[in-house]
Amino acid sequence: MKQQLRVGVIGCGAIGKEHLRRLTDVVPETIVTGVADYFLPAAQSAAEMFHCTAFQTGEDLIASPDVDAVVVTSADPSHAAYVLEAIRHKKFVFCEKPLAQTAEECQQIIAAEQAAGKKLVQVGFMRRYDRGYMAMKHAISSNEIGAPLMIHAAHRNMSQAPGFETDYAVTRVAIHEIDICRWLLDDEYATAQVLGVRQSSRTSGEWLNPQIMMLTTRSGQRIDVEVQTDGAYAYDIQCHVVGEDGIVSLPDPTSVTKRAAAAIHTPLMTDWKDRFIEAYDIEFQEWAKSLLNGAPTGPSAWDGYVACVTGDALIRSRQTGKPEDIVLPEKPEMYQ
Ligand SMILES: NC(=O)c1ccc[n+]([C@@H]2O[C@H](COP(=O)([O-])OP(=O)(O)OC[C@H]3O[C@@H](n4cnc5c(N)ncnc54)[C@H](O)[C@@H]3O)[C@@H](O)[C@H]2O)c1
Ligand SMILES: O[C@H]1[C@H](O)[C@@H](O)[C@H](O)[C@@H](O)[C@H]1O
After folding, report:
1. Which strand (E) or helix (H) includes residue 14?
2. What single string gives the DSSP state of each residue in 224-260?
3. Which residue ranges form the domains of the chain, and what is each CATH number?
4. Ligand nearest to the CA of 80
5. What is the distance in A from the centroid of ligand 1 to the CA of 124?
6. Can you give the residue ranges of the Gfo/Idh/MocA-like oxidoreductase C-terminal domain (predicted)?
7. pLDDT digits over 235-268, tens only?
8. CA of 285 to the centre of ligand 2 (A)
9. Which residue among 157, 177, 179 has the greatest number of ligand 2 atoms within 8 angstroms of its CB, and so is best to mutate?
10. Mutational pocket test of ligand 1: of 96, 130, 287, the residue with most ligand atoms within 8 Å of the beta carbon
11. Interface pTM (ipTM) of the complex?
């Protein structure tokens, strides 16, 4: 069995650089051998920093005999093509969320992976590796709160990069809740709806903010997700699962409590990089170990597909003003 995986990273922006550092410093099973970015200076500076080759294109990186596994951290619209190209080369590929822009592209990925006859794809739903969510799942599956009835969740961001659009509140932001809630409840969704709400004056007004996303599961549980994409007081992620016999809540990350000036202060985080730093570390450690054992075990192309189908239904419902049904084909054997 190989002891180290040679990894190439496509997309050397914010999370690309985070994962490059992680693959270099935190995951002993990986060595970064190449980087690519369509903005070549970004690839060159990352190559210098991480002592590896800067490839001219993502396709060159994928084809390189020095790359065993690919990490896709480029912009959303480029994900599907790189994932398909990696599958064509029968290489493992870790793709940041979303897996693709459309459900059809996800289906192409699923078809290609099945034709390759081997699980190759993992999607970057890192919250499944967060200790808080893992403890919640354990409490639910060991029946500590009885049958789960509903989830109240919130995803609050302080700002967004220029060019943000209303739909991105689903495809880039709430996509994490879409994945984590079905994982927590171990159920699939039946309907999705976006509700309107008074708009925040703390945002530019170029897109809808906040939005409330409602999901129901096949067994009738209800999930409400408050999504603030801009202007929130902190980067704050909340999740409460209400069961017949009790409630489990996502713990806040540990921070020092200060008692001063006749008050108690507990600082909150402002950035996803810090809030989920340990989850990303564990995600990549587990990914590398699973590949050395033969196949990825984390969120699959099917999970990426379900997230896209659910996101599409949420976006449709904003246009129709009604709950939209979520219909899935049968789950292929590979993802059972
Ligand atoms: N899991 C998470 O919590 C999480 C957090 C942040 C970002 N992301 C995802 O990671 C991806 C990157 O996000 P980011 O914040 O680092 O963005 P970013 O804009 O900081 O970086 C993207 C990089 O990709 C490059 N790029 C864009 N299109 C490309 C293409 N076709 N080929 C090669 N390179 C290309 C850009 O030049 C840039 O350097 C997004 O898909 C985002 O949704 C996930
Ligand atoms: O809302 C942000 C999420 O909380 C992060 O985890 C990233 O996915 C980022 O891209 C989103 O903009």
Report:
1. helix 14-25
2. EEEEE-SS-SS-EEEEEEEESS-EEEPPPPP---EEE
3. 5-126+278-300 (3.40.50.720), 128-271+307-335 (3.30.360.10)
4. 1
5. 12
6. 137-323
7. 999 999 999 999 999 999 988 999 999 999 999 9
8. 21
9. 157
10. 96
11. 0.99
Q: What are the tens digits of pLDDT across the range 88-146?
A: 999 999 999 999 999 999 999 999 999 999 999 999 999 999 999 999 999 999 999 99
Ligand 2 neighbours (beta carbon < 6 A): 157, 172-173, 176, 272
CA dist 185 and 221 (Å) reads 9
Check whether 2 has a pLDDT greater than 80: no
Q: Which of 133, 272, 275 to mutate to test the pocket of ligand 2 (most atoms within 8 A of CB)?
A: 272
Amino acid at 318: R
State if pTM tops 0.95. yes
